[in-house]
Design brief:
GO terms for molecular function: ATP binding; ATP hydrolysis activity. This is Heme ABC transporter. Belongs to the ABC transporter superfamily. Keywords: ATP-binding, Nucleotide-binding, Transport. The protein has eight helices and 13 strands. It is an alpha/beta fold and 267 residues long. It has two domains: 153 residues, P-loop containing nucleotide triphosphate hydrolases (Rossmann fold), CATH 3.40.50; 62 residues, Dna Ligase, domain 1 (2-Layer Sandwich). It has a six-stranded mixed beta sheet with strand order 5-6-7-3-8-9, sandwiched between helices. The radius of gyration is 21 Å and the shape is globular. The protein starts with a strand and ends with a helix. It binds adenosine-5'-triphosphate. Adenosine-5'-triphosphate binds next to helix 1.
Length: 267
């Protein structure tokens, strides 16, 4: 259970979070969205109990796993030593965590010499050594390769059946993919707390790079080598791709040109 009541919090006397109230009881995935500097990490720090509010009330019942933005790893240790150290400190099963994050080949490497993604895997393995009641995950898939990121998201969905997971992200697609609730933070305030299914995005801008000129086939326009089409729902992209393939056109790339979160935050 997490409860914040009229919390102000920040750093060095400067208020960053203004009058934040939040009640979370139901096990589920809550995605915290917001622009850079909006206050997502600060909110997680308050929930984690690392940052004491200037005013208001914080109540949390249950054990907390916190995966911070800054990875906070002992850089001089090799991976195996670090995980053993964490398991001695926190308890838990090192081998399970090693397998979960595919760390077998990295065990004898010094943490300082790992790539960002590899460090992220070690840092996530640390919080999956044992079970917690509440998981606070600050951009957990950032720097993970797409396969690991997808496996990780599946694991989190499974976990959220009986745990509270609060997950910050910049990506509304990721939110839609796994989130049940969205907490939108803007300028240190919670401006929206709703079901993901209630979030309406006006339109998605999709860029298509293809073997032929698409001007006469689809309503849209060129921006560099991408042909831009506007769709109301991400699933419309499949229909468009199928249509183009039927016309014998080769598709090199389909990508999201603008994060729909921008629309959400601009009202
Ligand atoms: N340790 C700190 N000391 C002073 N100010 C800080 C500190 N950490 C964050 N801030 C400030 O607090 C504000 C909110 O930062 P926070 O990290 O919570 O944002 P965020 O939404 O997580 O951003 P991002 O998406 O960039 O991670 C920013 O203006 C930031 O400069």
């Amino acid at each position: 259970m997490i409860s914040l009541k009229e919390v102000d919090a920040g750093y060095g006397g400067k208020v960053i979070l203004h009058d934040i109230s939040l009640e979370i009881n139901e096990p589920s995935i809550y995605i915290v969205l917001g622009k850079n500097g909006a206050g997502k990490t600060t909110t997680l720090r308050v929930i984690a109990g690392i940052l004491k509010p200037f005013k208001g009330e914080r109540t949390v019942k249950g054990s907390i796993a916190y995966s911070s933005h800054s990875l906070a790893l002992p850089e001089e240790m090799i991976v195996k030593e670090a995980l053993t150290f964490f398991s001695q400190l926190l308890g838990g099963d090192v081998n399970k965590a090693i397998q979960m994050f595919k760390l077998q080949d990295l065990l004898d490497k010094k943490i300082a010499n790992l790539s960002e993604g590899q460090k992220k895997r070690v840092s996530l393995a640390k919080i999956f050594l044992k079970d917690y009641d509440i998981y606070l995950l600050d951009e957990p898939t950032n720097a993970l390769d797409p396969i690991l990121a997808s496996e990780f998201r599946n694991r989190i969905v499974e976990l959220s059946k009986n745990k509270i997971v609060i997950y910050t992200s910049h990506n509304l697609y990721e939110a839609r993919d796994i989130g049940k609730y969205v907490i939108l933070i803007d300028n240190g305030k919670i401006v929206k707390f709703s079901s993901v299914s209630d979030i309406k995005v006006k339109e998605y801008l999709i860029g298509i790079r293809a073997s032929k000129d698409l001007t006469n086939l689809l309503p849209g326009y060129y921006q560099g080598e991408y042909y831009i089409v506007k769709v109301k729902d991400p699933s419309d992209v499949n229909t468009i791709v199928e249509k183009l393939v039927k016309e014998g056109i080769q598709i090199y790339e389909v990508k999201e040109m603008k994060n729909p979160l921008e629309d959400l935050l601009s009202g």
